[in-house]
Protein 1
Amino acid sequence: MPSAPQRLDLLDPADVARLGGIEIVAEGVVEGFLAGMHRSPFRGFSVEFTEHRAYQPGDELRYLDWRILGRSDRLFVKQFEEETNLRSMILVDASKSMAWHGAPERLTKRAYADRLAAALALILLRQRDATGLVTFDEQVRHVIPARVKAGQWTRIVRGLLDTPDGQGTAAHAALQRLTALLARRGMVVLLSDLLFDRDLALTALRYLRHRGHQVIVFHIMDPAEVELGGPPEVRFRDPESSVSVVVRPRELARAYADTVRREIAAWRKACRRHGIAYHHVQTDLPFGMALRLLT
Amino acid sequence: MSFIHPLALLGLAAAAIPALLHLLQRRIPPELDFPPVRYLSAAERESARRLRLRHLLLLILRTALIVAIVLAAARPLVRVKGAGGGAHEPTALVIILDNSPSSGAVVDGRLVLDRLRVAAHSSIARTTSADRVWLMLSDGVLRGGTRDALLATVDSTRSGWQRLDLVQAVERAARLVEAQPLPGREVHLLSDLQSTALAEGRAEVPQGVRVLAIAPGRAVANRGIAAVTVSEGAAVIALSGSAASGGDTPQPVPVTIRIGGGRRGEVGARGLATPEGGQAVTVSLPAQSLAPGWWVGEAQLEPDELRADDRRPFAWRVASPARVTATAGAGSFVAAALAVLQEGRRVATGRDVMISGGEPPTGARAIVQPPADPALVGQANRALASRGVQWGWGPAGTPGPIVTSELAVLNGVQVVRRYRLERAGSGESGAEGVLATVNGEPWLVRSGNVVLLGSRLDTAWTALPAAPGFVPFVDALVNRIVAGEAEVAAAEGAPRVVFRTRGADTIGATVFGPDAREADLTPATAALAIAALGGKEGTDVLTADQFAAERFSGTRRADVSGMLLVFALLLAAAELGVATRTR
């Protein structure tokens, strides 16, 4: 009995990563993702309204025109036309904390972010959006300006591969530099574990939002960072700051989980307040599911 | 507090295990990279106080758990008050079970001994393997042994025939337990507490020894035969006893005597002792019993509350009249006494026994007085020596009263002139053959078939010829003493007569029976008993219920190991709760 063909975008990220390099993985993920979506996933932020048509069962309710419904009591949905001049910049945190995984069988946060960024860039470039890349740690490491020309995706992938794991993280510096690079209104996607000063980073993101950019934040965490585990007693060391603390994980697990939940909630609340889309992603989440968060 | 297994307390060292584990766990932990240390630090800051409290609580709970288990294993005993059960500290205990004859009395339809035996049984049953227990009966012997052995002894104990001096018994018991290296020391006196048993002396009870006596029952009327003596064809029966606590009017007491038995047949006689007649009744003996020989009889009273003293055997000898001749030197008093005895057919004329006054002894048996002339003493001594007599007269002795256990009639009679009787050749006065003394020196001795007197039987030498006992004395001299016969003796024991013999001759008898004081069932008052048995400090006279409650109360302990185990379980549950709930 032949096995059913599997979509890479729904497989375990670590299993997918073992299939090959970033390009192969990203292309496989995007193919599966787009096949599942049947149409561009980003309708609504890179397209413009063209006409109405009558509602048919199966149409998404969010595209109902409620004003027509209120006036004429008839159901119409909005039709959109894709644009090709959207400028997107993908920011990938390359700090040392991203080069960590809680278990050998899982991808590091950086590896996960690279593959997710490559897939996202491929989707954007296929719908002819100008897409660029910025990698950073304590400083901006690599900048690929947003273009739509052929070979842009290869350059982006090369940029990801050429960026080594850094040391500290200074996200606000990278974001401030990005504002100079993004003169036109566009979309900014930040892939990071957000282990930096929240207020400074939010200041920079809020500035981008103020300039009219659509800002999306992927908060990438390893599952081991959410649920504390380990030996009965252990000294945990921050790979970036070398600050260490001796704890008994079993004793501190509950308090730690509460702290992480509060931190995520704080990020989510702050982002929502400033019109920033926030998504918490764990590295065991299939890439397709992560991409679907954007739709 | 004390412990049944104190060695188990060594386990308390294990109480340090939780603290040691805590310290040992403070080793260098493994180091791991963990990016979100900032979250950890925040979580730890928030939980630091809770975690410190948890650690402290767990340390306390675990240490207390070990301490509780170790203490439970050591079986701690804590002092408790009140009656009832519970363990007690190791105790040295002497149980005095008074099974003297009076314990056979029936009071309120029940033997006194049964009541005492129940208390003894209960006391022994309450002892533990850590106690040391002895049992003393009226024979005064301290019996050790296992609990089961002592219980068996108590169960098999019957009323005996020996009297128990409670003062001496308690003093001995108190000394014994006081010498034991145990924390508790008790003497349980289970007796009817006859006042006669507490009349003499006062027990010295060491400090720290508790004497617990069970209170006696009510007084009951009793009458017993104290002694029976036979003389001049009549039996004199001395009675003893006690009146009931209600003070009933004394009633006449019928007495029956039975004499003889066996081939001689049995003859009997009856008498009646009235209250006006005092404590003795005289019953004439049947004529048949006046024939020569040893006779045995038994006097009996009507049955009453105490049967042991209701009968008493007696024995006497009816001898053929001795054929006696007194020389001229024997003196007029001797001649007069012999005349009286001859008239009463106690002696006859003959030469079997010669009574002389310093002349050389002749005849088969001789009674010799010192010569009146001191110059003849040496000659008389030589004559005695030639006959093989080992005694002779020495220098004059000092005046004084006669003291003797052989002839009651002589006791206290004054002697004003005498010679010291000395063993020939040695100049010493040995005790062998001495029948009476004056000032500790022999006055009347027997050597073979010769009896020597230290004084002449004359009022110039001694008051004896003028005393009422002179004729009986001469009677005893010629009929019994010179023949080497002893008086009928009395002794304590089961009623019976035991004859003493020398060769083929019967020379005496011992009549056994209970001590006459046993018949007096009047119990001592609590105050008298306490005073006689050690005083208020350490002696209590208690009812049966009080006795059951008070024994071992000085050292009564409750074993709290069960409570400790329950406490340990609660601690374990609390530890489990804290350890799991706070994770």
Protein 2
Amino acid sequence: MTLRRLTDGVHWLSHCEADGERHLHLSEYLLDGGDGYVLVDSGSTRFRDDIVAEVNAVTDGAGPDVVVLAHQVLPHKENLPAFEAEWGDLEVVTAVPRLGGLDLIADVPGFTDIIGVSGARGTVLGRPRDLAGRTITCTRPLLTDVTVSQWLFDHDARLLVTAEAFGHYHAPGDCLKTSADLDGGVDQRHVTRFYRDKLTFLDQLDLGKVRAALEALLDRLDPRYIAPIHGTPVAGEDADAYVDSVLAAMDVSDLEARPVE
Amino acid sequence: MGSEAPAVDGVDTAHWDSFEGDRHQHQSAYVLADERSLLFDTLSPASTGGALDLVDRALDGGNLDYVAISHPEGNHAGNAFALLEAHPEATLLVPERGAGHGPGFGAEHDLFHLSAAPDAGEGIGNRIEYVAPGDELDLGAFRVEFVPAVYADHAFSVWMVERTTDTLFPVDWLGFHHQAADCVTFADEKDRAVTERDVAQFHGNVFPWLQFADPDAVDARVEEVIEAHDPDRIAPAHGSVIRERPTEYMRMFKSAAREISRQGTPERIRERVEATFPREDERDELGTGETGADR
């Protein structure tokens, strides 16, 4: 079982892939709304049986009422058909493109078909919504690689779920640990390697603007946990140090002086 | 996409009125065929039948030797398995490593099931090869080379250059919307010229990180791309094929990045965060305090 209760009403389904001595999380989060459940991401088919078993264990076989997708790349969305076969119709909420660029949000006809999640409903970003009894705001990611993505904030638990570009690797044996369980917090090497591997544009960033943006969001939300799809959950008391770590990871101004292991 | 400009606070949609009819965005793949043939990207899974038909028409009865995927995103790779099943002789070409400052997570390819169609039970029989920048293929009249994807979304990305025609295939870079009547015209044939504003609008969508860009660093990278490739033609996935003044379009991106970067100042970000997550005492004032409704 790779299931851990993170905080009241929040269950972390910790699944990961191995690449030598590094593991990469592909997590899902199950939120208990009292009368129903929200599952954040559907995960990879590779972990389908475990995900179904873990969701059934928490929901007493009822399954989730709503699935919110961080984005539509295969390992995030691909269990949806199997979930519907297991639990019946689900409400699926997915990110949509920002039509016209910059700040405008709108539906693009047929977009959910284009990205292969037919029947899903496009998220309305930036407004709190009741999803299966949880108050959740989906928001544009501050950092992402794949274009059409969303982060979400669960107001009840003060849980900020982040997808691509706000994660890190972990060591074998640390798959179910949070930052609070790790001596010294999240290993800087795992953060650095993740950013160097995942983001192609680090050399063109103004890191002062990135820091200001991350701090503005975290100051406002004061999350109990930052919960990455691709990383160890970071406890709120570790958030400032984690942001420092992320900024250090993104600094590629002198790679020869600071090579990543 | 409709061209009627909706009223949206804080968003300049005025230039949408300059489009006649609907605004469209390309979703393009390219077939290069001579002694051997290559398909670069596979179109969206929303149009599998259409994609198979278009490829067959482009091949004109010939075999498909290579299916090259620029990156494993649905609207670029979503018909890969259907195409490979229809063309069992074709070799699948996928990026070998990440396009960023690290090599990429080695197991990531497995997560995209490159050797087995989801739910198929058995793997596809096609040959799979990994390609890296510098790898070349001789197709006869065409010689393609895979080159680094300087502007990419997913880390496992690759661009392509065709040397005989000096065509750069930059995938998600250098797209722009077009009018409904211009779906199969080249950029130089359009009634409505592509503007810097069009390029900014497209890239503001596709590369959200540009809000945090250092414009001088972007300028330098674009000039490096121009120096490295200096193409005669540009064939993007999400814009019309550019046959004239290609470097002008590449430099439009520099202006676009500069404009988009103004969205990411600390003041603008703070305003957005506060509007999205108002405190209790701010909710009535901002009019965003309702919860529970599907808006």
